[in-house]
User: What shape does this take?
Amino acid sequence: MAHVEAEGGCLCGAIRYRVDGEVVGSAACHCRDCQYVCGGAPSYVFVVAAKSLEITKGKTATYRNEAESGAIRIRHFCPTCGSPLFAEDSAFPDFVSIKAGTLDDPSNYKPGAHFWAKSAPPWHHFDPDTPSFTKGANSEPVKNS
Ligand SMILES: [Zn+2]
Ligand SMILES: [Zn+2]
Assistant: This one.
């Protein structure tokens, strides 16, 4: 997959980061937890090795809980403005998922798949050209009608 070399941060600017590494995947996550964190939309994320991410300014606050997958997720957000920034997942400890909307230029981003589609609200419009899965990466694909 593509190499990414980019900077990003939160809405208020208190947190800044730099990412330089291979993108191992990108996806929209429609699980209920992500809907809360993102205020209605899915989480649009891309995944890189944790060592590819460097926080260059500020210190994130974190929220840790058990995801529906059973994994422990640690969600990083700005303690001042609340912007969701990254998440760690105990099932993939060497990787981090970065919220695409926090890139300074998110225009080149595209989700490679939709996960946890079973939890999406009926009003979410799914792109029929992007594969969708009922739950996580190894779950049933959703048939596009
Ligand atoms: Zn902020
Ligand atoms: Zn999710």
